[in-house]
């Protein structure tokens, strides 16, 4: 089973998590959507694969609920993890989608196998911690400037990775 775990302050990340689940279910893939506030570190182990989502806040920070989560208590070595998140490529062009870069760094150190990298083509930003070797470490979304692309980007990402 896939666990889709998100932190959302304005609702965009929650909507994307639910759309992701809907598309996966349509493909016959079992999944469960959970807010990070509703789970414990031990809950991560019950999923075969994880999809983790966070918006980027302030100067490139994780969403508050992720920020206060106890990552040290997670046992995730060898587990497959995909990432998605929101940023504002115009207003915060130098920290665009940094939150997924932060999640990437945390979960790589914990031994996770990250997948679902996305080309930076079609995005207009200056810098991002979420870019490694010329690709986003997960699905970067921007409802502030490219909301018309969100649903199609999610569908394409799922088709390519699941």
UniProtKB/TrEMBL annotation:
Residues 2-162 form the Flavodoxin-like domain. Pfam families: Flavodoxin_1 (PF00258). Keywords: Electron transport, Flavoprotein, FMN, Transport. Its cofactor is FMN. Coiled coil: none annotated. InterPro entries: Flavdoxin-like, Flavodoxin, Flavodoxin/NO_synth, Flavodoxin_lc, Flavoprotein-like_sf. GO terms for molecular function: electron transfer activity; FMN binding. NCBIfam families: flav_long, PRK09267.1-4, PRK09267.1-5. Low-potential electron donor to a number of redox enzymes. Belongs to the flavodoxin family. This is Flavodoxin. The lineage of its organism: Bacteria, Pseudomonadati, Campylobacterota, Epsilonproteobacteria, Campylobacterales.
